Amino acid sequence: MLRIDVPRSLFVHRSPGGYRLRVGSGQREMAPDYLARLFQQRGQARLIHFDEQPVPDTTAADLDPVRNAALSPVRLMSPKP
């Protein structure tokens, strides 16, 4: 018995038989809409969205204290020195 673990990739890979999707113990060709959605999801996985980037020259103290309290479960990011 041989076990091979292949880590999940950020990229979409094409096999010699085309883009395939495993279904149970077999596989079938991916529908065009499924493949388009997969490309979109994998492409966005590598991007850093604007709302996830720290604002330069700001700290958590610059936030409104009332609204900041509502964000308490969220980890606030500070820019790197």
In words, what does this structure look like?
Helix content is 25%, strand content 10%. The protein has a two-stranded antiparallel sheet. It has helices at residues 32-45, 65-70; strands spanning 20-23, 26-29. The model has no long low-confidence stretch (mean pLDDT 76). The relative contact order is 0.11. With 81 residues, the protein is α+β, with helices and mostly antiparallel strands.
Give a nutshell description of this structure.
By secondary structure, this protein is an alpha+beta fold. The protein has helices at residues 32-45, 65-70; strands spanning 20-23, 26-29.
Number of helices: 2
- The whole-angstrom Rg is 21 Å
Number of beta strands: 2
- Average per-residue pLDDT, rounded, comes to 76
Uncertain segments of ≥5 residues (pLDDT<50)? none
Q: How large a portion of the residues is in β-strands, by DSSP E?
A: 5-15%
**Which structural category do the helix and sheet elements fall into?**
alpha+beta
Keywords:
elongated, alpha+beta, about 80 residues, 2 helices
List the helices and strands and how they pair.
Layout: E1 20-23, E2 26-29, H1 32-45, H2 65-70
Antiparallel strand pairs: 1-2
